[in-house]
Fold these 4 entries.
Entry 1:
Amino acid sequence: MKYNIYTYITIFFSLSVVMTSCVSDEDLLQADPNVETAESFWKTDDDALRGVNAAYGSLLTDGTYMRSTPLLLDLKADDTRSNSPWGSMANVGRFNSNVTDAAIYGWAYETYYQGIYRANQVLTNVPGIGMQDEALKNRILGQAYFLRGLYLFHAVNMFKNVPLPTEIATFYPQKSEAEGWAQVIADFKAAADLLPTSYTSVSGLDAGEKGRATKGAALGYLGKAYLFTKDFDNARTTFKQVIDLGIYSLVSNYRDNFTDTNENNSESLFEVQFSRDAGGVDLGWGGAPATGWGKTSARAITYGARGFGFTDVQPTWALFNDYQIEKTTSGAVDPRLDATVFYNKPGGMQLYGKDFATTYAANPGDLNDLFCRKYQNSDGNYADEFDWRSGINERLLRYADILLMYAECLNETGDTPGAYTYIQMVRNRVGLPNLATAKPGLSQTAMRDQIAHERFLEFPLEGHRFDDIRRWGWLQDATKLAWLKSRDVEFNSYVPGREYFPIPQLEMDNNPGTIQNDSY
C-alpha cells in the first residue's frame, strides 16, 4: 500500500472589509469562520504533516512528473527523438521552444514555484507550532527543505537565472545561476541534517510511510548539486556518505526499476509516488487540486509505442547501436536494450501481450522503427495506455547513479584506477566483462569518455543524458557537438544559449527587471 502523502491542503486567505466612518482599522478585518487561513490552520502535528504533504503534491501534476518534466529532461538528448505533431513538444528536442508559447516548459516553471511556495509555507509556519512530537517536527522541516531544494534544482538547472524564494513575499528578484546553486546546496544540506535514513524505525504520524524524502535522498541530491557545479571534492565526499550508509544496493533485475511491481526498492533513493488505486480518475493537470484527481502519470501514454500510446517520444538509433558495442560475458546483447526499447527483435518480442513483428507486419515503417519500453505498462496486464492512467512510480534518483557519479568524482580528483570498482558494480548486474581487463589503464580523459558511455546505457529515458551533456561542456566543444549531430539530427538546430529554456513570458511580465536567457 502506498504512503499517505496523497493528502492535499489548500489554504485560502480571505479579507472581509466593511467601510464606514465609525469603525476602527481593526474592525475592518473580519475572519470568515468557514474558511481556513494561515492563522487558523497551522496549529497541530497533523496540520504540519498535511502541509508538507501538499508540497509533495506538486510532484504529481502535469508541470512536473505527471508528464512535462520528463519530456523537458529527455527530449534534448541524443537518446531520444520526437516526431510529435504537437509543436511545443517536438520543438523541445530541436532547441526551439517558443517564447510566445509557454506550453510544457512554462507549466513546469509554474509548478516548480508552486512546490517552492508550499514548502516555504511549511518552513515559515511549522517552527511556530508547539508540536507534541519534536522528532516529527524535524522530519517535516527536513522534507520541506528537501522538496524546496528539489524544485529549485530543476528551476536552476533548466532555466539558469531564476528567483530564489526562501520566505513568503510578493515579489522575488531574479538571481544568478551561482546564487541558485548555492541555495540548492544549502537546502539539501539542511534536509540531510534533519531527515532519517528511513521511516521504518520512526514513531509518529509518518511511521512506516514509503516515498518520503530521506537522508540518503538529500545527500544524493547534494552530491549531484556539487557535481553539477564542478565541486568534485565535495561531491566525492558526499556520494561516499551515501554509499557508507549501507542501506542501498542494486536490484538484480534492471527492469524492476521501471515497472509497478518492485517500487521503492533497495536501489531507489527517491521516487515520485503514482498509483492507479489512489484518489479519483481525473488527471491532475495543475493548479489547486480537485477532489476527483487521481494520482496517475501520463508519461506512459505520451511515450507509448505506436497503436498503444501517442509515440511522442522515441529512442534514437544511436542508443540502439551503442547497446551493440559490447557483448556480455555470455556473448549476448546488453539486456538493458530489451528493458528500454521495443524493436523487431530476432526471435520475437512481446508488447502488451502481442508479438511486435505481427502487430506491425502491415506497416514497414513501424516494423523497422524503435519505441520506448521503459516506464510502459507493457508486460501484459494492460491492453494499451489510452486510459492515461499509469501507476508506475518515477524513479528520480537510483543507487546506480550514485555509483557512477562517485566513479566520475574519483576520476576527476586523480583516482582514475579507483573509478573502475564502482563502474564495474553497475556493469556486473547486466553481465558485462570486467572493465579493468577489457580496458586497463585508462587515462583520465579516456575514463571520462568511458563513464559517459556507461551513463548513456544505464540511464536512457530517465532524464539524465542532456544534463550530462550540458554539464560536461560538450555543446561548447566543436568536436563533441559534431559527434552529437551525427547521432541525432535534432542537434543541428542547437545555437548557444538554447541549452536552457526561456524564462516564461508571464514571469517576465510579472517580475520587473527579469532578464531573458541568451538567444531567446
Note: Residues 1-25 have pLDDT under 50 and may be disordered.
Entry 2:
Amino acid sequence: MKKTHFSLVLFLMIFNFLQAQNIIKGTPPVIAEKDLTAYIFVYFTGNSVEEEAVRYAVSADGYHYYHLNNNKPVIDSKAISSTGGVRDPHILRGEDGKTFYMVLTDMTSSKGWDSNRAMILLTSTDLVKWKSNVVNIQTAFPENENLKRVWAPQTIYDAKAGKYLVYFSLQYAGGPDKIYYAYANKDFTALESAPKLLFVPKSERACIDGDIIEKDGVYHLFYKTETEKAGIKVATTTDLTLGKWIENDNYLQQTKDGVEGSSVFKLNNSDEYILMYDVYTKGKYQFTKTKDLEHFTVMDNEISMDFNPRHGTILPITRSELKRLIVKWGMPEKLPKINNNPVLEGYYADPEILYSNKTKKYYIYPTSDGFDGWSGNYFKTFSSDNLTDWKEEGIILDLRKEVSWANRNAWAPCIVEKKIKGKYKYFYYFTAAQKVGVASSDHPAGPFKDSGKALISARPEGIKEGQEIDPDVFTDPKTGKSYLYWGNGYMAVAELNADMVSIKSGSTKIIKVDNTFREGTYVVYRNGTYYFMWSEDDTRSPNYKVRYGMSKSPLGPIEIPENNIVIQGNPDIGIYATGHNSVLQIPNKDEWYFVYHRFSYPNGIKMGDAGGFHREVCIDKLEFNPDGTIKQVIPTHEGVESLK
C-alpha cells in the first residue's frame, strides 16, 4: 500500500472514530445497530427462466441460512421485467432506515448473454410489497446504439451528493465491460442522466459485478476481472465519482475455481465482515471473513444453506422485519426461536405500561432515549395486542412545540385511564426540566394537550436535595382515590383532585424508605397489599436494580422484606442495569408482567456512562410467593410469549 494512501486511511479512521463518539453523545440513529439481529439473503437460482427470479432466505446469525416460500420466487419476474427474467438482485437499506432499494439485471440467459439492455429499480417499505420500474439504458438515453449488455446493478448512498448512486457494468460493441454509474431520481423510478464511467482497471481490461462498501470513510469496490486471469479484486477511494481509485493487485478469492458476484456485508454487532462470492462453476457459494477488508479467511465449514443460490446479496434486518417475512412466507423449521426482548426497537427507557379498556390494547409510554445526557425533548407511545409485537404510534407530546413551561429533559412518564361521565379519558404525567407536568387526551395514543403549567415544580417541605422527577399515578381500588408519587432521593405522595390535573391541598407527604431508594416509584395492589417498588443506584450503573416494600395503605408506612430485590442484572448473559419499572396486571386475572429498562444489549456495557442513556425496554413475567412476597424476576433475552 502506498504511504499517501495509508496516511489518508489513518486520518479517516481517526476522523470516523471521533464521529462515532459524537453519535454516542448526539441523537439516536435511525436504526440502532443493536436492533439488527437477523439477515435476509436475496438471490436467484440458475439459468432457466423459472430460476431467474428473486428468492429470499433468512438467517439469525449470518452463518446458517434457510429459504422462505419453499424456495419459490417472492416476486413475479414477468410482472416486473421486460425480458421475463431477472438476475443478480442487490438490496440496500435506505438512509431513512425504513425504505429498501433493490436493483436487478433485466435479463434471461436463454436469449443470450449479450441480449439485455435494461435494469429494474424497486422500492419497498416492508420487504414484502415492491414497486418497480424498468430502466432501458439504450432507449432512455441517446447514443447508446452500440450497447450490448447491462449487468449486475447495485446501489449505494452517496452522502456527498445526497443521492442514491446506481452502478453497473456496460459493454459496448468492440470494447470491454466497464463499471458505470448514474444517480437515481428522488422516487427511485429512473436514472437522472446517462451513465458515466465509475471505474475501469489500469489494465483497461473488462470488469463486472461491482460491489461497494464504505468503511471508515473509505469506499471499497470489489469487482471481477474478466479477460485476464479471472477473479475478485478490490479498489479504494474516498470520493465515489472523482475517478481516483487505488487498486490492490491481489486476488481475493480463496479458491482456484471460477467465481463471480462478490458481495460484502458486516456481521451484526461485530467488527467483522463477510466477503462472499458465487463459485458458479461448482454451483455453490464461498464465504470468507475479514476485519480490514484486505485479508480474508475461508469459513466454508461454518456456513450452511438449504438452497443453492446464485449471485445475490445479504442485508442485516431487525426482528420486526424478520417477523414480517415469516408472517408472509412461513417460519423455516430450523430457524432458531426469535427472542422477544427488548420489546421496542430503538433506545427507550423508564417504561410505563397501560391496558386500555377503550381500545382493548396494551400501550408502552417510555422515555425517548439515545440522547446525550438524557436530553430528549419528546415522548412517543407504542401499542400491542399481544405484548410481543409493538407498533409505534408516533410522538404524543413534543416539549418544544406543545409545552410552554419546559422544553428539555423529557423523562419517565406515567398514565392513568379514567372513566369520566361515561367516557374514557387519559391523563399523562411526565417529567420536563426536572418538574412534573400533566397532559390529557381522549385516546391512549393521543394527541395529548398539556395543562399549561407544571403540576410539581418545587421540592416538598423539608426536602433539601433531590429532583422532582419520575411521576407514578396509582388509583386505590378500595377508595377510588388517585395518588401521584414522585421524587429522586425522596419518595413523595399527594392525592389528586377529581380533575386529575391538580393536587389536593395539604395532602403532600414524604413516605419513609430505606437508603436503597433512588427513584422510580411504582405502586400496585394485590390481595389487600400495596406493593411499593423503586430503583436503587444510578441508571448509569450496571448494578441499577429494583427493590420493593409492602404496606396496608397507599400512603405507607412501608415494611421491607428481608430479600426485597425484584430484579437485578445477569452479567453471565450480558444483562445489566435492570431498573425503573412498571407492572401490568392482565385484566381480571392474577397474571402479572414486569416492564423495565436495561443497558442496550450487547454493547451498552461497553459505552461507559453513555450506557445509561442508551437503554432498551424489556418485559418478563412477575410472580408472587404463597405468602404474598414477590419472586425475584429473572431478566431474559427470550422475553414473554405472545398473548393469545
Note: Confidence is low (pLDDT under 50) at residues 1-24.
Entry 3:
Amino acid sequence: MTLFGWTPSVAVEDLRIGGPDWADEDDTLRVGRFEGSARLQRLLAGQLELTRAVVIEPEIVLIVHEDGRRSWVMDDTGPDEPTRLPLIERLLIRDGRVRVDERGRGLTLDAAIDARELAEGVGDEDERSGFRLEGEGALNGQPLTLRVLGEPFVQLRRDRPWRFRAELTGAGSELEARGQITRPFDLSHFTADLSLSGPDLANLYLITGVVTPNTPPYSLEGDLARDDSLWTFNEVTGRVGDSDLSGDVSVDRVDDRLRVEADLRSRSLDLDDLFAVLGAPPDPTETASPEQRARAGAMRAQARLLPDAPLRTERLRTMDGRLDFRADEVKHNDLAVTAVSLGAALEDGILGLDPIAFAFAQGELNGTARIDATGDVPQSTVDLRLAGYPLEAVIPARDGQPTVTGRALGRVRLQGPGASIADFAARSRGTITVVVPQGQMREAFAELLGINVGRGLRLLLSDDQRTTPIRCAVASFDVRDGIGTASTFIIDTDVVLAQGEGTLNLRNERLDIRIDGESKKPRLLRVWSPITVSGPIRSPSVGVDEAAIAGQVGLIAAIGALVAPVAGVLGLIEPGLAEDANCGALISQAR
C-alpha cells in the first residue's frame, strides 16, 4: 500500500463481499487479488477516480429473488438505479467469472470476463477487442448465450465514449447491439444500433420484462438509447410477418412501474399478421413459425374460427402504457379491409382498446373493448359497430352475378370472463345484431326462401337475373353463456316474407337456423319445408328439410289418389297471404 504521493495505491489479497442470508450463502464478490491507484486531487474533492485497476480472478454472483430482491443491493427498497462505477483510466481483468441467477424469469448465466491492455483476436471471427465477456446459460428452460466485445480499458476519459458490441441469443430471440457508453463506466447513458429477430415478439418479455404481443416471425432494427431510467428505441424499421413496421418506442420507470409508449405504423399490412396479436395463428402458407403452422392446422381441422391462445394476465399487471397503431394500406384480403387504426391503453392491469377501427372498400367497423386483467381470469367487454358493409362481399355470386346486394349494419355487445377470445365468446352474454335496411335479391332465390319449387327452379334453370327488392332483413341474437338464440330473424322481400329461428353457438362455433318462408302472391307447387343453415360458422351448409318435403309430397299424393287429381294439385298451391313486415319498427328495435 502506498498512501503518499499524487496517486496513492492499494493492493488486497482474497477480497470478499458477502451476500444476503437468502442468497444461499453465496458471496456477491470474490477477488483473488486487487491492485488500484487513485488521483489524490479527486479524492480530496470527494470524488473517486482510478488511474489503474488490476483485478485477478474475480467472481461476481448476482442473484435476483422471486420477489425481486437483488443480492448486490444493500437497500433494495428504493428505485432500481443504473450501475455507475468511478472512472478507471486503465482497467485489467484476468480470469474473471460472472454468474447470474434471476429466479423469477428462470434466467441463469455463467460467463467468463477478461479485459486486456491491447486489442486481440477472440473467437472464430477473430475480432479485435480488449474486453471480452462470453457465457452460456438458460432462460425459461431454453439455451441462452451472451457475448460482449469492447475496446481496451486504456486511457479512458469521461468525455470519450467507450465502444462495444453485444450479442444475445435466447428465448427464441436474437439481439445484436453496436454502440457506445457515453461516459465510461456510467451505464445509465449509452446509445447503440440495435437489431433483433425471432419467431414471436412475445418471447422478448422474458429478456426485457416489457410486454409485447404475439406475432409471426419478425426482424427489426433501430436506434437504442438509455438516459437514466428512460429507454428509447426510435426510427424502428423492419418486418413482422409479411407486413412492414416502423415507429418509435419508449420505456420508462414511473412510480416504480414500467411505462411503455409506442407509436407504430405499417405502410402495407398483411391482415393475418395483425390477427396474430389476438392469438390467431398467421396464414401457414406465408411467414410463420413451425409452432404457428401447427396451431393453424389444428384450428382448420377443428373448423375453428376464434383463437384460443391464452391472454397472459400476469404480464399485463407488470406495466402500464399506451400504443397507437395505424396501417395506411392493407394487402388484398377476403374481408376487403383497406385501412386499420388501433389504440390501446394499459393502466393497473386494465387494458382499454379505443379505437378499434377497420375501414373497408365500402363501409367500416368501429368499436371499443375493455379487458380487466386484475384477476386470474380476465373480465372483458366488447362493443363493435358495423356500418355499410356490402353483402356481395360475403355472399357468393352465381354465374358472375351477385345473388344479394345491399349494405349491412351490425352491432356486437358482449361481456363476460375468458382467458382467450374463444373462451370469452363461449362464456359471454349480450346481443349480436345484423340489419339490412334495404337491398336487392335475385328473384329466384327469394322464391326459394318460400320453397316455391315451380317458379324458383324455373328462374334458376333459365338463368333469370331479375331481382326483387329486399324491404329489410333483421337477425338479432340474445347471447347467454355463449349461446345466441334468435329473438328476431326476418327477411322481407317483395315476393316472400321469411322468418327464422335457431341458435348461434359460440361455444362450438356452429349455426343451427331454420327459415320458414311465406309467399306474398299465389304460387303453384309450393312445398312447406324450412330452409336450414347449419354447421361451422366459418363454412355453414344451406339446405332444406328433406324429410319434411318427402312427407308432404307423399301425403298429397295419397290424398290425390283417394279423392281426385285436382285435390292433389290443390295441396301444392300457396295462396300468397303473407303481408309486409313493419321494417321501420324492426330496424328501430334492433338498433
Note: The longest helix spans residues 546-562.
Entry 4:
Amino acid sequence: MKLKKLTIRNFRQFYGEVSISFSTDDKASVTVIHGENGAGKTSLLNAFKWVLYGTTDFDTNNQNILSERAIAEAGQDSPIIMSVTLEFDDDGFAYTAHREQKFVKGAGLHAESLGPSVPLLNWINSAGLSGRSSNPGSQLNQILPEDMHGYFFFNGERIEKLAYNSASTQVREAIKCLMGLNILDRAEKQLKGPVIRHFNKEAKDSSSGNMTVLLEEQSKLTDKIQQKEDEIKGWKSTLSEIDLEIEAIDKRLQSIEAIAEKQKRRKMLEEQLEQIIIDKADASAALNKNVTERGFLAFIDSQLTGVKQYLDEMRIRGEIPSKIKATFIDDLIGLGKCICGQPLEPGSDCVMALESYKTTLKDNGVEEQFMTLFGHMSHLQSERKALFANINESMTKLTELDDRRMNFLGQIDELGEKIKGVEDSADLEERRVGLKADSRRLNANCAVGEHAKSDWEEQLKDKEKEIEKELANSNQADLSQRRKQLAKEVAETIGEFHEAMAHQVRLDLSKKVDDTFRKIMKKDYWAEIDEGFTLKIFKNIEGHGKQPVWEKSTGENQVTSLCFISSVVNSAKERVTKSGGLQKGGIYPIVMDSPFGALDPEYRQKVANFIPALADQVIVMVSKSQWRGEVERELSKRLGKQYTLTYQKPNPGSDEKFEYTKLEEGFYG
C-alpha cells in the first residue's frame, strides 16, 4: 500500500478544500509535514482514520469535526459537506477512497447531521479497467484492517505505551493482526459459535422424547458459555486499556518533582500488593486442596479410637498376636531338641504335645492384617493432627497476608491523598482513583464470570455424557452429534495451532526488535518480547546475570516501541513474498505525528536515521524545534516532499473571526 494524495474538505480546522500529495519515490520515500502544536497535525492523522473507517481518536470522537468556519459562513438551513478523499495504490490497483457527511446549518454555530457518513471506493486495475466497490467498508478493512491502523497512523509521543508492562495484550493482538493470524481466531470462534449451534438445531429437529430435552439443555448451556466468554473478553480488553492509562498516569505523576518520591513509593507498595494477592490465592488453593483431599480425617476421631481400643483388647487377651509361632515349633522338632534341653524323639509324647499347640494358633495372615491395621490407625491419627496443624498454618498465613494487605492499602490511600494535595497532580490523581475503581469492578466481573463459565462447562460435560448414553441405549447413529463433536475438536486444534503460530512469530519478531534496538541504543541493553508478549529491556549485572531494566525513560520506551513497529512492518513485508502460509503479510506505509519530542539529541539523530527504514513510505509530522538539527540532517537524505501547516487565529478588529489551518507545499520555518 502506497499513499498518493489526501484531500480534506471542511474537516476540523481545515476550511474549504486542502490537498497533500505524498512522495512515492523509493529513494526519497519520506514526506515531512511541519506544524507547531495546535496547527492540525493530529487532525491530519485522524483524517486518515475517518476516511478509512468512519471514526476518529478525538476525545469527543466524531462530534465537532465539522469546520466552525464552514458552519459560520453557510446560510441558514443550507447544506454543508464535509469530506476526505484518499488516493492510494495497493497490489496492482489504484484506489480512491472517499467519505463524506452532509450537514444542514442551524442556529448559531450548530449544524445538524443529515445521516451517517457515506464511504465510496473506486478502483482501476493494472489493465486499465475501473469499477466501484459494492461493499467499500469491508474492502477497505481487508486492505488495511481497522485493528491495525494504530500501528501505521500513530502519535509518536503516545506510542511509548507499547513498551509499558501493561501493554502485553496490545502487543499480542498486534502480532496476530499484522501477521494475519486473526483468521485463525475467527475460524475458531465461528466453529465454536454458529457451526455448533447449527448442528445442535439439526440434531434437535431430528430427535424426539428425552433426547430432544437433553439437546435443548445442551444448546442453552453452549449459548450461555459463548455469551459469557464474549463478555469476559470485552471486560479484559477494557481492563487492558485501563491498565495502560493508569501506567501512563503513573509516569506523568513520577515526572512531577514534588511528588516523585511518593509516587515511586506507591508504585512499589502496589507491586507488593499484587504479590500478596497472588500469595493469598496460592495459600487459599493449598488450603482448599488440603481440606478436599484430607478433610475426612477431621470426622473419624471416635472411629479411630474405637477400632484401636478393640485391637488393644484383643492384644491384652492374648488372642492377637500369638505368643508362639507355628514356625518356631516346627524348628524345634526339626532340631530334635526342646528349649529346656530335653531331646525330642520322633513320635514321642513331647513331640505330640508340641504339635497339638499348633492347632490352637491363629492364622499368620490374620496376624499380619492385625499389625497392618494397627499401624494404619496410628498413621491416621498422626495425619489427623497434621491436618489441623496445616489448616492452622494456612489460616495464620492468610490472616498475616490480610493484615499486610490492609496495611499496604492504608499506606497507598495515604500517599494518594498527599499526591492529590499537590496542585499539578490533583486532576491526574482523581482520574487514577476512578480508573482503579473501574479496574477492581472489571476484575471482579471477570472472576465471577470465569466461575459461572466453569460451572456451566461442568454441566455441559455431564449433559454430553447423558446424550452419549441416550444414543447408545437407542442405537441411534446421530450424524449431527458426530459433526458437532468434530467441529469442537477442529476448533480446539485451531486454537492450539493459533497459539503456537503466535509464539513462533513472537520469537521471530523478538530477534528483529533486538537487532534494531541495539543499533539505536547507546546503553549496553537489549530488547525482547517475552513469553507473556511484553516488550522488555534487559541488561547484564556482574554476578547476577540477565536482569530487567525496570526504570525506563520515556525516550527508551519510545525507541523500544518504534523498534517493535518497524519489526512488525518488516516481517509483514517479508510474508508477502512467501506463498502457502497462513500469515498473509502486506506492504504498509507509516504515518507518525511527533516521534522526536521525548528524545535527547543523540537518540533523535539515531531515530531520524532509522525512520526511513521503517517502511517503504514514511510520512512524518514535526514541529520546528523537532525538525532543526539532527532530524533535518538525517531525514533530508531521503526527503521527497515537504509541507507546512500554519495556524491562523482570529485577531480583534480583523475580518478573520474563526481559526483555521493553512497548508502550503515547502518548508516555511
Note: The domain at 2-24+36-144+634-665 is CATH 3.40.50.300 (Rossmann fold).
